Fold this sequence. Notes:
Blueprint: H1 2-8, H2 19-39, H3 49-55, E1 68-70, E2 80-81, E3 84-85, E4 91-94, E5 105-111, E6 114-117, E7 126-129, H4 130-137, E8 143-148, H5 151-165, H6 194-204, H7 209-215
Antiparallel strand pairs: 1-8, 2-3, 4-5, 4-8, 5-6, 6-7
Amino acid sequence: MLYEQGVAEGIIPSADVSLETWVEANENEYKQVYQEGLKDDVYDASMSYEEWIKLNNYGQPPVVDENWEEVPQNPIVRGVYKGYTVKKGDILITNGTSSSGLLGHAAIANGNEYILDIPGKGKTTRQLTTREWMDNYDKHGWIKVYRLKDSSVANAAAVWADKNYYSTKGTSKQDIFSKYGLTGSRYAKNPTYCSKIFYKLFILGQEVNQWYKYFHH
């Protein structure tokens, strides 16, 4: 029933993800992440698995609207890793890891060569070079890069993320250390989690519909 609902909502691509494959992923991966989240108290124990998997986009990457484009792997020089040209404001999604209570991981390029994220339980926000971030995740799964077609909105989002989650002065010296957690208000900056940063960014920027469904856990 959940699989059919995900297909009907346009989230699970049935042509690529069969019922058998999806059920296997739930049994062997997704349920373990759910149980870890319960054990670590990263969300309310009353949340059922069915509610949780829906909030985690049925374990699928985001379906983007006309405001976004998926960045192809084209070789250039600056801010590049294995063909990805990363630009300020890009959103990076990977299934190469899962934090306690969350499937996959998300980050934002807060500069043309730097990536901002919060990696998981017991961690705080951090900034890595594109190469460092990609090296952490591409060995264990896929990485997708998404870009807003409006570069001014993307640039503003990157600046906001940087000054609210890394450096109040917008410098390379970190002076903001938000902790990881799924509790508290969706609008609070601390605690936070990887996708909550983007929920706040694009709610504020009115770029929300598809990203809210994927990012708001």
